[in-house]
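The protein record now logged underneath.
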Amino acid sequence: MKYTLLLLSEIGGVVRLAGATFKAMWRRRPEGEPLMYQFDHVGVGSLSIAVLTALFTGAVLALQFAQGLQFYGASSYTGKLVALGIVRELGPTLTAILVGGRVGAGFAAELGSMAVTGQVDAIQALGADPIHKLVVPRVLACTIMIPVLTILADAVGLIGGMLAVMSEVGVSYRWYIAQILDTIWLSDFNHGLIKSCFFGLIIGLVGCYMGLKTRGGTEGVGRSTTNTVVATSIAILVSNFFLTKVIMVVYG
């Protein structure tokens, strides 16, 4: 019971921060320079992680499906399964988990250091809104850049799958691309992009919340950073299930 109440309290804290963040965005437009810095930090800084993860995930997925379909004589149709797996699930989910661990931990460390040294209180004492100044650019950057990274991860993952299928099954790249075009529709891309937008929002809010509530000096900063990685990963995986159910009802 104690841990259930603690979990509900943490969820309530994130929801309150989300409300304050949307309210701050509605009242005043975010500053351009901090927002562009966070775009660079979240997007460009996570490019290598997203690309490498997607490339080898697509290749491994293709190898597994090709071997499984070989028993039925259908290994040449591996591209269909790889495309659906990457675009609908693995692209947005793996990108969010890996990038979220990096970005969320960074947010928690930065804001946690500011919180324990009194900088957040100083901003408020000077009449500025810490939510607008510190949280809004980070949440916006995550919500916008995670879908962009997901699109890139989808493309690279499909290329990785193509290379694996061409080498293991022996099909041509024209056949592989034809299988993708025959399988993937706009609704499949929307399926992944909608989820990645929510994942980005979760990453930004959880990272900022953990950072702002940090107490206990440098030890507290380390604890908040670790908790952010764990909480972000669990929140993404849990929300992925419910988002998938809702999107499947909407798109059929």
